[in-house]
Each structure stands twice: as C-alpha cells, then as structure tokens.
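stage 2 :: seqdesign
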C-alpha cells in the first residue's frame, strides 16, 4: 500500500478532525488553543490525508488527542499504523509516559497498543471517557 506518515500543519489536522469527529459543529469548535505548539502527524494514502493524530508534550509526558481516520478508510489498519508510529516517535521527544482520554468504545482498541486504563474517567457532552496510559 502506498502510504506515508509525516508531520502535518495544524490546519491540515483541523480539516480531518472536523470532517470525522464533529462535522455538525462550527469549524472553530475543533481547534484547540494548544494546537499551535502540538505536533500533528498524518497518514497519507497516495497523497490524500486519511488519518491524523496530535501530540501534546508537557516535559516528560505526552498526550495524544484528536485521533481520526476518514470514515470510508476506517478499520483497515491505517489508524493503527499511525498510532504505532507516534508511540515510537514519542520516545525521541523524551516522553516517558504517554496518555489519552479514550472514548469508552475505544478502550479495547488502545489496549492493543499496550495502553492501560487508569482509575480516572469522566463524561463530556454525554460521552464516557477513561484516561489510558503507557510508560515508554
Ligand atoms: C479511532 C480511529 C482513529 C481508528 O482509526 P482506524 O484507521 O479505523 O484504525 P484501524 O483500522 O487501525 O483499527 C480499527 C479497528 O480495525 C481493526 N483492524 C486493524 N487493521 C485491520 C485490517 N487490516 N483489517 C481489518 N481490521 C483491521 C483494528 O484491530 C481495530 O479493531 P477494534 O476497533 O475492534 O479494536 C477511527 O475509528 C476514528 O476516526 N474514529 C472516530 C473518531 C474517534 O473515535 N477517535 C478516537 C477518540 S478516543
């Protein structure tokens, strides 16, 4: 498969984020203040961006957020390839612990990457989340 993974600009990440995660909200809804300093990664299939994930670094901790694969390409392994890449890459930034707010229906997915559930969970906009983490 002709795919590449590379850093992308926040604007590229925003487009996919909006399309996949909150298509019915205003475009500005998907922007995060910290996006300016985050590192955004994208997976391209034949030059088309189909999956994005953003990494927010705070000293030795890294949070990944806004992981999204365009609907018609989900379930084909692209997201896994991108997440594996980011987990490997995180080490190069000196990150020792990586974590995320996992939507409840994604917990088993993240377990495949060695993330474990913490005791912290919360509900936001009617959706349940659990914090998951992994030592690198
Ligand atoms: C979460 C998300 C980014 C995953 O991206 P993806 O490209 O679909 O990821 P993958 O294809 O690698 O994995 C998805 C599933 O397909 C399976 N899979 C992986 N490779 C596969 C392949 N070659 N063939 C069939 N299935 C495959 C995975 O095991 C996984 O199964 P699971 O969900 O039962 O654990 C995507 O589902 C998405 O954008 N969801 C909407 C937004 C969202 O929920 N974001 C995460 C918030 S925590």
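stage 2 :: out
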């Amino acid at each position: 498969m002709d795919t590449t993974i590379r850093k992308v600009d926040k604007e590229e990440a925003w487009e996919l984020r909006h399309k996949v995660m909150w298509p019915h909200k205003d475009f500005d809804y998907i922007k995060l203040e910290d996006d300016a300093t985050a590192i955004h990664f994208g997976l391209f299939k034949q030059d088309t961006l189909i999956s994005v994930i953003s990494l927010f670094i705070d000293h030795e901790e890294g949070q990944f957020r806004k992981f999204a694969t365009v609907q018609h390409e989900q379930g084909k392994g692209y997201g896994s390839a991108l997440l594996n890449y980011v987990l490997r890459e995180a080490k190069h930034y000196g990150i020792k612990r990586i974590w995320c707010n996992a939507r409840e229906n994604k917990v088993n997915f993240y377990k495949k990457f060695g993330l474990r559930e913490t005791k912290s969970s919360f509900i936001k906009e009617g959706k349940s989340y659990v914090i998951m983490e992994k030592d690198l």
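stage 3 :: structure notes
- The chain has three helices and seven strands.
- The first helix runs from residue 10 to 20.
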